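User: Can you predict the 3D structure for this chain?
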Amino acid sequence: MLRWSGMLMVGAVLALNVAAFAQTPPPPANRPATTTPAPVTSSTPATPPAPAIPAPPPTAAVTPDAFGTEVALVEKTIIYFKGTGNWDAAFDTIVDGFKTVRAFMDKAGIKPSGPPITIYTATDDTSFSFQAAVPVAEAPKDPPKGDIAMGKSPTGKALKFVHRGSYDSMDTTYEAITNYLDEKQLDAKDLFIEEYQTDPVNTPEDKLVIDVYVPIR
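Assistant: Here is the predicted structure, written as structure tokens:
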């Protein structure tokens, strides 16, 4: 944006009649001297200045989600439902697994000690095998049977990634993870883990926040 400065040109011509001015009689000697009247002082007190408005505090910076952060997975005691499913209905299958585990825990009076996790033990283009697991502080005296079992979560070095949004949109996240591993030339194990920071049973699917852990060799 250009800013233009204005120019002020003055062309005033004064025509004075010097002769007439010279012939103008001086004022009478007895004319009282002209005095300038004193300024009138108002009795109204001055208005005090308005108090300064403090500046708003700076907005806190938003920390970006982790993507490829190296972490060490700690072993946890878990109660899990072991099953298989198809990718077309993956989220519903996993949620049903968590519901089964929670029903057992509620009946046994067992409290979770951390967020639920899904451990994918095998995958292909159409299906997967998984464990819908809930961490607990200690193993129950009466261990579960059938489709529900006790176990330990995976341990070791892994990379952490964060997904926000629906489960269906996780394809985009996993594609980015694959590209990241290829770019860094990292060798991942045939195993990956999802830890749900939002309750997968009660949270709307488009509001999910999921930490994805990829164990690496």
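The radius of gyration is 41 Å. The longest strand covers residues 77-86.
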